[in-house]
# Entry
Amino acid sequence: MDLLAKIKQVALIIGDLIIAYIALVITLYIRYGEFSNEVIQWHWWPFTITFLIWLIVFYIGNLYDLSYLKNSIEFLKQWGSVLGVAFLLSIMIFYFIPGVIIAPKTNLFLVITIFGLLNYFWRTGYNNLLSTGSPYNKVLLIGYNQTTQELADYISQNPQLGYDIKFWMKEGLRDKEFDHLAQIIIANKINVLAVPAHIKKDSKAGRLIYKNLTLGIEVFDLAELYERVFQKIPLAELEEVWFLENLTKKHRLYEFLKRPVEVLSAIIIGLITLPLSCLIYLFIKVISPGPAIFSQRRAGKGSSEFTIYKFRTMRLDAEKNGPQWADKNDRRVLPLGNLLRKSHLDELPQIINIIRGDLSLVGPRPERPEFIEKLRIEIPYYDLRHIIRPGITGWAQINYRYGASVEDAYEKSQYDIFYIKSRSLVLDILIVIKTLRLLFTSAK
# Structure
């Protein structure tokens, strides 16, 4: 993500927080007509904690994702549902957590009402601001293929991202306008050139682009611009040298810290969810004969195989005709099995795999060896997802639907390569937070 996108998101977060405190100030004035130290101290910490929880819920609900920030029915539905969840959590905090002694509780409902109204106008106004006016990044796009078409379509439909395709040389090096590059840059106020890697390697094109650097342009590989816009890597645009430049970097501090943090987290999560795991175990034993916990071979780091554990959500004879991907409305699924799968509660036994070192908390999902041979043929660079330990959740899981085909595996691989390139403790934490959304809904 580029700096301008981060600034837009930070501004939105700060705006939400300011509006929350404005709602609190208005509420205190309505209720008490003054702002004494006693009144402020009485309300400050409970509401500050509540507001921070709201921000986390907004993040989980994609309300800080720029691709969602355009005024539409879909956005209003998303905003309303996320706001409802945030308000419900705050009501639970005020009414059911000991130590929160604000009374009357009317104050909470006043803050909720005022914040909801103010936030609606703030959000719709901010969305309009992002989508109107002239985008900062004015792009000259060179070349034509499926990747450039996908990029151009998405940018035109999402002006809030801050990009605008001002000129498109679809014929690439053969385009008759290529020799007039400087005039086109000046006439269209271009500040970003998006060029496929093979065109940059052409000596004539390279010299021509070099001569125009004095015009203040940035030159991106097509793959780099695609990555910034979609937060995934376009496999079709890559060559081996890209991986040498981007995936061989060491993350020593990250790797040093990740393993102990994950083991400690797995133990804590296991203890917290133990009662729920026991209930799921008993439920499966009651409704279906056979073991409640089901094991399966998966490919891990370095393509080495290991045994993964899950709560069984299908009949015992689910694969009598051989290994196969699960369908959306799979008839092999047990009663409430779909709920366990969609909420990912069936994966709770994989805490054992984390402690054993088979899995990470965050990483590419491990695939079955039976499918890998085909995927290696169909998906370029597929084996590179095995250079790190697979995970229970990952960047692909929070950004793409459940995979049930080679096409889905291809899309997920693009997200997986993005994660491998960008992995950090901060990104892992953000992925874990967003994974909470999958307990109630599906990914994109």
